[in-house]
Specification:
By secondary structure, the chain is α/β, with parallel strands linked by helices. Helices cover 36% and strands 18% of the residues. The protein contains twelve helices and 13 strands. Helix 4 crosses helix 12 and helix 8 runs parallel beside helix 9. It starts with 5 loop residues before the first helix and ends in an 18-residue tail after the last helix. The structure holds adenosine-5'-diphosphate (ADP). Adenosine-5'-diphosphate binds next to helix 4 and helix 10.
Length: 367
């Protein structure tokens, strides 16, 4: 093999296809800074999704291309550049790259469970994450993340979110003294409070702000979509028909509000008994039906597992408490697919150009 040169390496890498965008990485700028010094190759690879599968694919493709060019050792500087939503001049969350609304038409399908586990999964991928509990009448985040206490302000202007597992949190539950106390506010007051949760809370710089929306169609999503551009919606359903009717309405509302549906999660899909036999307690196919109606992908099917509830009640989502368990692996896989979906959607919206890599240089720290 001849000694590698910058030209020969650039040519070899020219065929490497970006695993997220399906285009040559050199053409779209996700491969750059190719240097050959004293026969030693170095380059920068920029990924738009922190998903493990994407990085592995990129790593394999780059390695194979380099090996074909006779290079067995290269110094790859990996960067993750999470795409950013459209941020207008009056956007109250200028430092927040993506806002994901976790929604369902119906209560009790596991929306808060999905929102909390998603937030933790994203955090474990090395992302900067916030979680806003927009369910003002029935806030679940304080219990599911085991956090109590009143948020305070250090400058008399902005409210500091509470923290758990490195995730900034805000919930109506932090503002009531007794968790059993009913919130007897009228709609407009609640909307005022929700606006404050967005505008007056110091969310800072985030890759993802996850919002746990109240069940039902409607006004909360409307209030939010008037405040800022949302990246998209994660729709949660269970398999049975009775839940689906309400979820269809939720999907329809998203279409009316022009909120992109990034994917569907089917929760409580099946139960595996101690003999390993799978039971579809609530029927089958609901997630697929909703995904089809929403023209989105079914990102995952979460099994019914008592541990999900136990850890939720304990205040440590299962992704954190038992990352090796089946439900946790499913949640992490959903987070992988969601981040990749977001990257692809933003890439297409941006006319097939990747954002230059000036973003945070962080790789997955745990897992
Ligand atoms: P929602 O936000 O839609 O009202 P929750 O997330 O509060 O629903 O979930 C309702 C209840 O079901 C909670 O007690 C939660 O722990 C439990 N739960 C949710 N998903 C699962 C699951 N996959 N397996 C077992 N229990 C679950």
């Amino acid at each position: 093999m001849p000694t590698p040169t910058k030209e020969s390496i650039t040519e070899a890498l020219g065929k490497v296809v970006d695993p997220t965008f399906d285009k040559p990485m050199l053409d779209i700028g996700t491969l750059s800074d190719i240097e050959v010094v004293d026969g030693k190759v170095s380059l920068t690879a920029q990924l738009s999704s922190p998903a493990d599968a994407i990085r592995e694919l990129a790593r394999t493709r780059i390695r194979e291309a380099l090996e074909a060019a006779g290079v067995t050792d290269a110094d790859v500087n990996w960067k993750i550049q999470v795409p950013t939503r459209e941020v207008m001049g009056d956007d109250p969350l200028p430092g927040v790259r993506n806002v994901v609304l976790v929604m369902s038409g119906k209560g009790g399908v596991g929306k808060s469970t999905v929102a909390t586990n998603l937030a933790v999964a994203l955090k474990r991928m090395g992302m900067r994450v916030g979680l806003l509990d927009a369910d003002m009448y029935g806030p679940s985040i304080p219990t599911m993340l085991g956090v109590r206490g009143a948020p305070h302000s250090t400058d008399g202007k902005k409210i500091q979110p509470l923290q758990r597992f490195g995730i900034g949190l805000m919930s109506m539950g932090f503002l009531v003294e007794d968790a059993k106390q009913a919130i007897v506010w009228r709609g407009p007051m609640l909307h005022g409070a929700l606006r404050q949760f967005v505008i007056d809370v110091d969310w800072g710089e985030l890759d993802f702000l996850v919002l746990d929306l109240p069940p039902g169609t409607g006004d909360v999503a409307l209030t939010l979509s008037q405040l800022f551009k949302v990246t998209g919606v994660l729709m949660v359903t269970t398999p049975q028909e009775v839940a689906l009717e309400d979820v269809y309405k939720g999907v329809d509302m998203c279409k009316k509000l022009q909120l992109p549906i990034l994917g569907v999660v089917e929760n409580m899909s099946f139960f595996v008994d101690s003999a390993g036999v799978k039971h579809e307690l609530f029927g089958a196919g609901g997630g697929e039906k909703i995904a089809e109606f929403a023209e989105a992908s079914l990102l995952g099917q979460v099994p019914i597992d008592p541990q999900v509830r136990v850890w939720g009640d304990e205040g440590t989502p299962i992704v954190q408490a038992a990352p090796g368990s089946e439900p946790a692996k499913t949640f992490m896989n959903i987070a992988d697919k969601l981040t990749t979906r977001i990257a692809v959607e933003q890439f297409e919206r941006g006319g097939g150009k990747s954002v230059p890599g000036d973003g945070p240089k962080r790789l997955r720290i745990v897992r």
